[in-house]
Amino acid sequence: MSGTTRREEIAAGLEAVEARIAAACRAAGRDRAEVSLVAVTKTYPASDVRILAGLGVRDVAENRAQEAAGKAEECADLPLTWHFVGQLQTNKVRLVVGHAAVVHSVDRPRLVGALSTEAVRAGREVGCLVQVALDDDPTRGGARPADVLAVADAVAAAEGLALRGVMAVAPLGEEPAKAFARLREIAGAVRAGHPAATVISAGMSGDLDEAIANGATHLRIGTALLGRRKPFVR
């Protein structure tokens, strides 16, 4: 629409997403207050983060350590909780621990150790979600389902870290509802040993309804809020 300001575009996106979340919660018999919206702002400018904050969004996520650290610094005056949702290399952990309250992509013991070291050094507690590779293929990030409990135990035992729950992306080519049903089972197994690990981070712009129906507590929404991303150029 010509003449539409960026704030109006984002406000319209947020309103539409909120309506979808409310409808999905009603359909699932859940309270809207049980579900947190995490705005994924990767590749978008800090000005968009400011607009989201002005519209009441409090949880913001990034997936590249350098971009995340810079944006968090630029927006340090805003009342935001920063989430890191991308695959994380151990040599980028310090950058992420510097700003992120929650890391959604913890998938191996070595990463747990690096996060613990940096959290202790920074005097911070970092919330961690164990990322699950629902297709049993860890090459795209995530622990195999059979390894999730061991990674969860490692997080729970690590100084400076708090086990908050699990995260997953629905595999390409599979019905999201089936994938998220498996995640819900895995989340229950983690919670059996760690009752405080109540977070299920699942659901993006295309499958948030199925995620809510299967117990998601945190939705990671980018496109539906902010529009299609331009191709990322390094």
Automatic annotation (TrEMBL):
Q: Which GO terms describe its molecular function?
A: pyridoxal phosphate binding
Q: Pfam families from the entry?
A: Ala_racemase_N
Q: Where N6-(pyridoxal phosphate)lysine occurs, residue numbers?
A: 42
Q: Keyword check for Membrane, yes or no.
A: no
Q: Which residue intervals define the domain Alanine racemase N-terminal in the entry?
A: 14-228
Q: Which cofactors is this protein said to need?
A: pyridoxal 5'-phosphate
The reply to whether Transmembrane helix figures as a keyword in the UniProt entry is no
- InterPro entries from the xrefs? Ala_racemase_N, PLP-binding_barrel, PyrdxlP_homeostasis
PANTHER family cross-referenced by the UniProt entry: PROLINE SYNTHETASE CO-TRANSCRIBED BACTERIAL HOMOLOG PROTEIN, PYRIDOXAL PHOSPHATE HOMEOSTASIS PROTEIN
Q: What is this protein called?
A: Pyridoxal phosphate homeostasis protein
